[in-house]
Amino acid sequence: MTRRAIRTTLAACGGFYLFLYGLDQPVAATYALFGVVSLAALSHIPGTGRQRAAVMARTTPASWLLVTAGTFLAVRTWTAVAGMLLIGFVLAFVAAAGPRAAGATPGLQLLYILPSFPPYAPDTLGQRLIGLTSGLVLLVVAELCVLPEPRGPTYRQLAAEAAMVAARCADELGRAPYTLSAGTEADVRAAGESLRPLRVDEADRPAGPGLRDRALAHAGLSVRTLLGRMQHLPPPPPGKVPLRSGADLLAAIGRAAAETAALLSGTGTRTGAGTGTGSGYGEAQTLRRLRDEAADRAEHEEQGLTAARGRRRAALLEAADAGVAFSVASDLAVHGRRARIPGPGPGPGGVGVGAPGAVDPIRFWYAGRGAPLLWWHRLRAHVGPRSVYFQNAVRIALALGAARIVAGVESLPHGFWAMLAVLSLTRTTAAQTKATVRLALAGTLLGALLAAGVLALVGGRTTVYALVLPVVMAVAFRVGPVRGVGWAQGMFTLVVSFVFAQLAPVTWRLAEVRLLDVIVGSMIGVVFGLLAWPRGAQAELHRAVAELLEREAEAVERTTAAVAAGVPGTVPDDRALQLALALAESAYAQRQGEPRAPAPGAPDWQAAMMTGHHVLWGSRRLLARSGPVLDTAHRDRLGGRTVELVAAMYGAARRAAAAPGTSPPQPPVNGSPVPAAPAPGSPVPGGGRPAGAPPTEAAVAAQAHEQEPSAPGTEAPAGRDARGAVPSEPPPGAAGTAVAAGDGGGGGGGGGGAYPDTPESAAPSRYFGALAWLESLTVDVDRVLAPCREQQPRN
What we know:
Elements: H1 2-22, H2 26-42, H3 49-73, H4 77-93, H5 99-113, H6 125-145, H7 155-173, H8 182-194, H9 211-231, H10 244-265, H11 283-300, H12 307-335, H13 371-380, H14 388-409, H15 416-425, H16 430-458, H17 462-483, H18 485-503, H19 509-531, H20 537-565, H21 575-591, H22 605-624, H23 632-657, H24 765-790
């Protein structure tokens, strides 16, 4: 904070003094100072000075447009209000694009607010733009050159280190005793933990809508999935060595992981995800070929496997699938649209399902798409009142519009201070806004009293203000973020008082005007906090997670019915599940930043979303390839497990939908059975989707931010680790049907009811994958409901 305060003070005072005292241009001086304050103090751009400077440079054209729009729309109050409603909504809604875009939003709002107030002076637009540009240039230079701070490891570097750990796992698992050493298991947990978005600085977190960010997030989740699969890989049957095909596949996983690590760390060229020959196209392509061959053998085998062999083969296929996804996503993250990856081959419906060497057009739907389309895809997913980003944008736009009406109709002097109070004090919940306003008003009152005393004593001696301003500004920008909103508002009152005392003759009543404007803006913020979604993300989180769990149950029913009936490979229509997952994750992310009262009996929200990932990718994996029709015994067992799991999911949905502190509605007396399996060769229930059709926005792009899974293999009571995270791995890139060691549990851990390893337990490989998927989902749902069992709701 000290570094940022010094940089902001140098840039703001440097531009202000240059234009005011050096060039005698007070308009340019005003915009030079507030241009710096808007993007350096009011905004919350994450990262080091160099990273912040890059964001500021990219937002400069938008800053010009906003100042220009505000200058011309100031001609009438109604035009300024209309512009505020539109621009306020658009800028706030851009927060859906990730923390970097969201960080600059408040400052950009101010750059429209400032020129939208009288006087209407379009002839001064040139001076305004010159001052703004000069201030931003000084700020960028200060961020780059003044007290630079070291940068931590990037997300690419962390993913590369995790890939090397995966390569070491493959090496150890390929030789007796075919298990991981204690040291390697510790490294697996550490590597997975380091890639959790919560552990990564916001500036390095790949949460944006662009191709490289999506691919890097996909790569991180895929390598974490790979680590989880390697850690839980079942050993060969006692007294037996691994089959040659399995050993070759495991070795290929390790070599491909090492090759991808070299690419991410900058010492390699390409991962072999594309077509071609040469050293740059070796290991990943070999892994793809071996994985496809193993999957083809599993699909066309005439005799089933015993449970031990079936579990190990399913786990190896999942690990290989994760390794392939990791290599492709890494190539896209490094090379962008220049990445050479193979296109989809012929498959059922022409979508490339099951084609050797084909890249999943659903999993990597973003490959080759331009930035405007990807941005549109991200924002479109959040258009509607169910999205917390949409709710926040509507709330702040209406509040700013109302403040502009009041300031214009009542002719508030320095009315933009009222709008600045709305912008800086309005929170996502009414309770949080009221608490913030109380502190802000107290701080503003004290600051106004002190400012009034200084103005009365010093009078019109501007030299005193010029000497004091840098010190007060540095203290304000250093103390405010640390001591809270009360200190920030009080110190900022001193700053603006000393600034305007140099621009024009003022009296002590300027402090009175400042206090009045802050009161008006605060009251407007409180009113709209009460009118527009006053509970913030809390109510939406309950609704979104309940719907997500219902969509998960439906997907499980459709998938197991298709597996039992031997439906040929197809692409499931899971858009409803993806949309539910995206809305739940955005609500959960916002809820993490809101004050929370204890909610006895509430489910584990994060575990519900991790279950959604597991259902999504596991369903796709199981339906991607064909399999035989199951016999009666195996179909009954699969159906029985499905009935139990679906009932638990609907029970969790009822628990999630219940208001905090209340009991959930009782389930119907007769539960709904699993739908009858479709006839062999018939379409999967729910239909398919066209080739290349992009999914709705889901967490595979890592928008989310705090809803990530914990490190692979983490063990903790009640389904949580020491940090409160759910120790289950989402399966982007690995399809979510991984099998845990021992008892047949998958990515969420080993569940109960393992299939017995007896001669009569022989079954198709697809059956083992489905059963392991259901068992691991059972563990996931148990984690969702664990808090409900630990603490019963109070009436």
